[in-house]
Amino acid sequence: MTRFSIVIPTYQRRQIVVRMVRALERQELDDFEVVVAVDGSTDGTAAALRDLSLSFPLKVVEQDNLGAGAARNAGAAAAEGEILLFIDDDMEADPRLLLEHERSHREGAAVVLGDLPLHPDSPRTLISWGVGLWASDRRRRLLATGGNIGMSDLLTGQISVGRSTYEEMGGFDTEITREGLFGGEDTDFGYRVARDGLRMVYNPKAITYQYYDVEPALYLKRVREAARSGQELALMHPEQRSRIDWGPVFKRRLDRWLFGPLVHAPEALVRPVRGLAVLLARTGRTGRRVREFYFAVRTVEHLRAVRFTRLAISGEAVVLAYHAIADLRGDRLLAPYGVPAPLFGRQLDALLAAGWSFVDLEAVVAALGGERPLPEKAVLLTFDDAYEDLRDAALPELERRGIPAVAFAVADRVGDTNSWDEAIGGASIGLLDAEGLREIAARGVEVGSHGMTHTSLAGLGAERLEQEVAGSARRLESMGLPRPRSFSFPYGESDPEAEAAVEAAGCRVSFTVTPGLVGFGSDRHALPRIQIGAADTPRRLLLKVRTAGWSPRWRARLLRWTRVER
Questions:
Q1: φ, ψ for residue 428 (rounded to 5)?
Q2: Which of 117, 197, 405, 434 is most deeply packed, by most CB within 10 A?
């Protein structure tokens, strides 16, 4: 049996793939064959390959444009080697490539990844400059960590695997690169190998030089598709979401301020900015300002694709945070937090008239797990503290419109008053007692926890955290309520220890008061909410929910600039 089968998927790159196949003549280990899987190319790739006169066996497999995953699987199916070495069609192999993979496999590796430096003949563009920098950083990092392979390193640009292992893994998932989409199938395959406890190694002496010549517009398209695949992988492997869900981010405050709003902007506003970035890249300029502009646009493209994919998976919800549904204008401290019942009703009507759909907590939890998408323009109502006016003033308005909600009760103050406000001069407001909480729960308001004593959880020790979180859940449960599955951090303040305590207590989600949108990919224990108060006329409330996903700085400025009459 042949020792190595080199499998190369290709699409519309006749000249490059022919060059790379010819370069394999220089391999020092000669027990190999090459299988090129032509993925629907219409540029004469297959014919050009079959016309080559080579010293090693070459098979050309053709298929419709089904994507890189399907092409690799088709190539592997036609291969006869004991070891499958997958390389991209722009990779020129170092003469010792096969010898190094052979050495690593004989030393017990199940999967071998090599080094991917930029080919010195690559066109000098700002994109190839970026790829070269990435390749150098990757090599340096892997060497410094002793070959500690992360999810972002699982690339099929150059990766070898024993045939039996490949077959046990079921090959590459073709759905990820369906219809010719780009990226993710290699990460998925590598993760499945690691999950099964098979040994993966990085061999820095196994080298393929990447001849990078990708048109700037195509590069941005690949960025979008890679972002899409990353979100789909996070859905497939939720236990690895934090490791899979990676990509470019804005590193400078200026970039966040200038380009951040484009992540949520209409396509009509983004298109000219994208076009300018592509034009500048095509000039061949590689100066600092051109690089910064182009790669900032790349980050916009990545983040937009992440957002749109999450929308397709789960939709997005705006979560509103209310406190008292009462006129508190006589209290200087609490006045901003009191929404009179008539205004509350007008706010609800404004949301309904604008096409917003009210959802319950179950719908939000399902969307977070990618189980069921939210309706378009979804909104969840929450009420902190569980004041008596929730039952007496808010609930009739909710029932009249068929709107569900969540109330967060302070477990040790049930049936008492808001002592945390009284201590700093606020008015005394009655809180629902156990019977009142059971009543609102029976009438469509789910009861969650707001802690035991309305104390900030940030910086608390383990014992106090247990009392405030798990203790409050037990107390509410003892009142005949379902054990809370949601938590609202008092004052919106938390830290990693507090979030861990909430999760350990069995709460599936917890909320802050930081503005933002909720959907697939959101941190379950730092979910954003929009605070609604007495100053929020129906028009202002609509502005708040429509800009929930904006950058905080731009959003705050807009809300200041657009004061509307009450």
A1: -85, 125
A2: 405
